[in-house]
């Protein structure tokens, strides 16, 4: 079992023939991901990396039965690419693009929300990986090994770091979801955690957040309200960040008392989450927590 993507997902790459799209599509194919083609307007009917190129997402859905899309389209056109995928009936849309204007994302998120059975992950995210089945993103696949720990993270690099530690602790990953660090994103921390909580093969969850916004607090309260069904290990990046200064991600800016790393960590602890002060402790803490749960 997995969430969002698996070996049966039929994946297309929007921005297929561009530099970024080509590079990462090749890596995904090498990993064994079921990439069925790509979309580059004006290049329909040609082949790229041995796969068909379509002019539109609708053509890819009709011609290759695509149900999942990964987007490597420049910021100015990325929101349109998201809406095109939703309109064509794509079920899982993973937007890697960084720097999409907030106004564009407000429209794109509202549009996707109006479509039944359609989920957007990102933008400005590393993607989603179900180890051994499908890598739909830019993460280093070799770091991830199959297992029963789910990862939800705002940070790309900390997703890989957490996965590496989990594997070195003798555990593995069910599905890792990079939700992205922009102010407007498709899938929230709570929604991603909920997917993993409902996955019968995920035993525990790692939740990595950062300063800014209330996504982690919302997820923590939901975990507590639903009875802490599975152990959760949490970490918040940006503990030394100065107030009012954007740090890395567009959404990582402290705007109120509850936006700080300290406040988020306190809320998470109050809700029964095992919070670590350093990302270096994620793997071993998860091993200890699982050991106690099984005892």
Strand and helix map with partners:
Blueprint: E1 11-14, H1 19-31, E2 35-39, E3 47-48, E4 51-54, H2 57-64, E5 68-71, H3 75-87, E6 92-95, H4 102-113, E7 119-121, E8 127-130, E9 134-137, E10 146-153, H5 156-168, E11 173-178, H6 189-197, E12 204-210, H7 215-225, E13 232-237, H8 261-270, E14 274-275, H9 282-294
Parallel strand pairs: 1-2, 1-5, 2-4, 5-6, 6-7, 10-11, 10-12, 12-13, 13-14
Antiparallel strand pairs: 3-4, 8-9, 8-11
Helix pairs in contact: 3-4, 5-9, 6-7
Q: How many helices in DSSP terms? A: 9
- Low-confidence blocks of residues: none
Q: Describe the main β-sheet briefly.
A: 7 strands, mixed
Report the portion of residues in β strands.
15-25%
- Strand order in the largest sheet: 3-4-2-1-5-6-7
What would CATH call the architecture of the largest domain? 3-Layer(aba) Sandwich
Anisotropy-based shape: globular
Structural class determined from secondary elements = alpha/beta
Say what the CATH topology of the largest domain is: Rossmann fold
Strand elements, count = 14
Radius of gyration: 19 Å
The CATH class designation of the largest domain is Alpha Beta
CATH superfamily label of the largest domain: Succinyl-CoA synthetase domains
Whole-number tally of structural domains: 2
First-to-last CA distance? 25 Å
- Overall helicity: 25-40%
Mean pLDDT: 94
Instruction: Give the helices and strands as they follow along the chain.
Output: EHEEEHEHEHEEEEHEHEHEHEH
EC number: 6.2.1.5
Protein name: Succinate--CoA ligase [ADP-forming] subunit alpha
Keywords: Ligase, Nucleotide-binding, Tricarboxylic acid cycle
Domain CoA-binding: 4-100
């Amino acid at each position: 079992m997995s969430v969002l993507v698996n070996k049966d997902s039929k994946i297309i790459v929007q921005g297929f023939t561009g530099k970024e799209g080509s590079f990462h599509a090749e890596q995904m194919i090498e990993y064994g991901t079921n990439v069925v083609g790509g979309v580059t307007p004006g290049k329909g009917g040609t082949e790229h990396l041995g796969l068909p190129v379509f002019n539109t997402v609708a053509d890819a859905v009709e011609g290759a039965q695509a149900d999942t899309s990964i987007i490597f389209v420049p910021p100015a056109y990325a929101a349109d690419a998201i809406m095109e995928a939703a309109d064509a009936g794509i079920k899982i849309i993973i937007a890697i693009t960084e720097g999409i204007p907030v106004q564009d994302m407000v429209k794109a998120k509202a549009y996707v929300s109006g479509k039944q059975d359609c989920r957007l992950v990102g933008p400005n995210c590393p993607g989603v990986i179900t180890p051994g089945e499908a890598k739909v993103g830019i993460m280093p696949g070799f770091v991830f090994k199959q297992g029963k720990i789910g990862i939800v993270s705002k940070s790309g690099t900390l997703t890989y770091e957490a996965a590496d530690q989990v594997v070195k602790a003798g555990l593995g990953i069910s599905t890792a979801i990079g939700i992205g660090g922009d102010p407007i994103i498709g899938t929230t921390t709570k929604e991603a955690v909920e997917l993993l909580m409902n996955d019968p093969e995920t035993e525990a969850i790692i939740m990595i957040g950062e300063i800014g916004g209330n996504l982690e607090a919302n997820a923590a309260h939901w975990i507590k309200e639903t009875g802490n069904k599975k152990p959760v290990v949490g970490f918040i990046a940006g503990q030394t960040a100065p107030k009012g200064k954007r740090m890395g991600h567009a959404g990582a800016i402290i705007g109120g008392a509850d936006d700080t790393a300290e406040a988020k960590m306190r809320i998470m602890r109050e809700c029964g989450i095992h919070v670590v002060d350093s990302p270096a402790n994620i793997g071993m803490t998860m091993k200890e927590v699982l050991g106690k749960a099984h005892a």
